[in-house]
Amino acid sequence: MRIEWLEAFQQTAETKSLTKASESLHISQPALSKQIRNLEDELGAQLLLRSSVGVTLTTAGQILLERSIRILNEVNALRREVTRSQDEGKTVLTIGSWPSIATIYLPGRIAGNLQAETKLDIKVRVFYSFFDMLTNLENGNLDAAFFDDRGVKHPFYTTPAFTERFFLFVHVNHPVYGNKEEVRFDEIKNDTFVMLPEGCDVRMLVEKEFSERGKELDIALEIELGQSILGFVHANLGIAILPEIFIIQKKDTIKAIPITDFGATRQISVITREESVCRQLLGFIESHPS
Question: How many domains does the chain have?
């Protein structure tokens, strides 16, 4: 039995999706499926039930998940200990984050860190739910997570890293908003939106803002990636409320319009098991601002 088989199984079980697990592990879906089949063949039991909407655990799969979490915790602890002993003080930290943070916010800072030749080695894993990030933080697969944890109960250290506003993203030829330079909440409250799924801090914050104003957020379509939502807006197939980090990725066909009285902001925090790691990552962010 190979460790990578257990890691593939655990990630699939936690995300309930072969697609999400393969993206998070940075391997192809066929390669992921093969690892899980190898594990099933070795154990002589079916571990997952596959369907068009995702995967669920069999009884054998549930037993393995509980045991694999403990096994991988020990393996990850061993890896960290050996790495520290071999790299002359070099620290390897694995960060879990949203796709937007992984593709827009972190790369420039990681590049600056490499150029500075520090003793810090940053690795990034992409997640689609803060529940999954917290689970992986707890079991030792992550050293830190980056998301808005306000309103989310957890036992970890947390410190704000940056705050951003929300904007209305529309096509420049949108019949209602295409010519507007700013909007108010009352103008958009009855619209339908392309939105990120539940378990994402953006979804939670936007829904909360609508609820506090006595309105229910009307969702026309759920899409897992903010970048894909921008594709729908680019095609003039919908409008979206997204944080300003996405402005850097929008095409010229898309306008990001300030919502002048939108009270919600997204505050991305650094969340860690150890306070010293939190301080280390904040220093990494401040030393390499772009």
Answer: 2
